[in-house]
Description:
By secondary structure, this protein is of the alpha+beta class. The protein has a single domain (3-126), classed as Aminopeptidase, CATH 3.40.630. The chain has helices spanning 18-25, 31-34, 42-50, 55-58, 104-120, 134-142; strands at 3-4, 8-12, 61-67, 75-83, 88-95, 124-130, 146-157, 160-170. The chain has an eight-stranded mixed β-sheet with strand order 1-2-3-4-5-6-8-7. Helix 1 packs across helix 3 (42-50).
Amino acid sequence: MFISDGNISLRMAEPEDAQQIYEWENDRSVWRVSETSSPTSLFQVEQFLLGNSDLTTNRQLRLMVLLKNIDRPIGSIDLFDFDPVNSRIGIGILIEKDYRGRGYATTALSLCLDYLFHDVMVHQAHCLIDVQNEESHRLFHRLGFNECGCRKEWIRTPQGYLDAVFYQKINPS
């Protein structure tokens, strides 16, 4: 573990996480929120994990969310579009359905933001959330993210297009 509050810990994704990540990536119920439209192979996940070691070089990083006394990750945080010149990064989180609504996402994101703002020294973190994802809107508001704009008809669904809200949090330091 590289960061923990005693109950929730974050660590780098490891090759041993490949099967779990493969299952999450191929869960069609979360494809809309992750902007995914096709299945991912286990080989693709394994290759990604082999390069999941340097945020500066790869401009992305996957962290695993661990819960004390559970023998496997309950979710992950994706850091993406890292821009070291402008000091900003995209952030997304997935917590398995059985573990949602218990504050784990709030704790995990709070730990991650502390790492990003104090260790990586980014100036801002940002995310894009479709208008129907009320849980994520509440989560990011709770953590001090501010709504900065709306991308109209941004996400295509079988029922039509959805708007997406852009959020950002500026490093308070």
